[in-house]
Amino acid sequence: MGGRLIEGGCVVLLVTGALCACGGGLPRAIGNPHPHGRLMAQLKPTLSAIPSTVHIFGQQFVPPNWDSCDGVKSTYGWDDVTVTAQFDHVKSPDQTVSAINASLHKLGWVPDSDSSDGAWYWKRKRSNGSKAAIQLLGGPSDAAPSPWDFQATVTAATHPVTGC
Q1: pLDDT class for 91, splitting at 50, 70, 90?
Q2: Which label site among 29, 46, 50, 144 has the fewest CB atoms less than 10 Å from its CB?
């Protein structure tokens, strides 16, 4: 049995060595996924949908990164542009979601049919046909204030990651 483990390890080592010897490194990044920061600029206004009555304790603005979900060379591409915020709510969950929904509607976002208690989704089709999405995770909790997570994403302008 110990011999089988060693043999398997040798096969993995040989395959890995062959990939490295044959130029099996990461593929080079292609194209400009985020021209002039326009995609991030389109997402940042979504944060205004979060009610001013809440305490936002975290925000992130994540530009696209050259990546692969599964490590396969042919699936490499640019990750989505992402804006996130974490906050505590001070009103009821229904009031929080209602306020966010009304604000996002004014910004051109429509609710997604997949929404349910504790997870709400919105979508928006961009002029170039690509999709943008928002997810809101949170909800009722015995402990107040309960944390919420707001995340808005848009597909990179070119060569999006595949295989996810």
Answers
A1: low
A2: 144
DSSP structural state of residue 157: S
Calpha distance 152→136 (Å, rounded): 9
CA dihedral 150, 108, 95, 142 (to 10 degrees): -20
The DSSP bridge pattern shows strands 110-111 and 147-154 to be unpaired
Judged on CB neighbours under 10 Å (0-12, 13-18, 19+), 80 is buried
pLDDT at 98 over 50: yes
Whole-structure pTM over 0.85, yes or no? no
Burial of 23-39, coded b for 16+ CB within 10 Å and e otherwise, reads: eeeeeeeeeebbeeeeb
- Nearest partner of 103 among 112, 114, 111, judged by Cα: 111
